[in-house]
Amino acid sequence: MDDVVATSQLCRPPRLAGLVDHLWHSAGLIPERRERVLPNGTFELVLSLGDRHRLVDGDRLRVLPVASFGGLRATPFILDHPDRCDTLGIVLRPAGAFALLRRPLSEVVGLTVDARELLGPEVDELAERCAETHDPDERFALVARWLWDQIARARAPDPAIAWMAAQIEVSAGELRVGALQKETGLSKARVIERFRAQVGVRPKLYARLVRFRRVLECLQRGELALADVALEAGYYDQAHLTVEFREFAGLSPTAFIAASYQGGSGNTAREPSSTDDLVEAASA
Q1: Which structural domains are found in the chain, ordered by start?
Q2: I want to staple 241 with a disulfide (CB 3.0 to 4.6 A). Which of 24, 87, 212, 235 is the partner?
Q3: Longest pairwise C-alpha distance within the chain
Q4: pLDDT, tens digit (0-9, with 9 covering 90-100), for 123-167
Q5: DSSP secondary structure string, the chain?
């Protein structure tokens, strides 16, 4: 691999719109050791085709498997990177994750697990096929075909919950969840139960995460002051935005802006390395 700083390439397969947010590929040297990843209401399947990344887990480093699956989160997590990477990511909307996993998404919320436990040996075969070529476009094409084959065999989701989640996404989390629930004709308890299975979390939390994603998108564009971002994303004011931001990101909006990466999906930032000695877990 060339000794060049890693850059990310993104792909949004039109055929998988609504199921896959985007695919990304990064290869090369990584100048920043640690990265903070903020929640944005998505799930992610990551293939490490070169050196392995590590998840900072308290005072330990947990080596991630070749194929790892990250559930939807409401808090940030910290990655500890190798010196260089060759990595491909599949960022899934809840509808895509539900179709791919074929199990309640509440089971993986907040977790990062070995994707083989969820998807079986087929994910190993995908990683092997991607490793056979270094061309990002060919890898994207392989992944898109694999996803389509996997998702095409999935059972149909509950249409009422799918509609409700879509309305939350289209409105960027601004529509009232109670009103949407009444439109489904289902009881509040039934909506919560089915929503957690099909999306992973309760409707109100998902709406907050979708709204937070809109904030991150506004910050990535860099066109608005924070007060204007707050109004654009449907918060009462900048103070309301700051409280919500600290809850989801673990730091203030201004601190995130100062450390954020301009490329990629807009939900990552540089994380200062800890001075504590971390004990690295045994590799899987």
Answers
A1: 7-155 (2.60.120.10), 159-254 (1.10.10.60)
A2: 235
A3: 58
A4: 999 999 999 999 999 999 999 999 999 998 888 899 999 999 999
A5: --SSB-EEEEE--GGGTTTEEEEEEEEEE-S-SEEEE---S-EEEEEE-SSPPEEEETTEEEEPPSEEEE---SS-EEEE--SEEEEEEEEE-HHHHHHHH-S-GGGTTT-EEEHHHHHTTHHHHHHHHHHT---HHHHHHHHHHHHHHHHHTSPPPPHHHHHHHHHHHHTTT-S-HHHHHHHHT--HHHHHHHHHHHTSS-HHHHHHHHHHHHHHHHHHHT-S-HHHHHHHTT-SSHHHHHHHHHHHHSS-HHHHHHHB-SSTTS-EEE-PPPSSPPEEPPP-
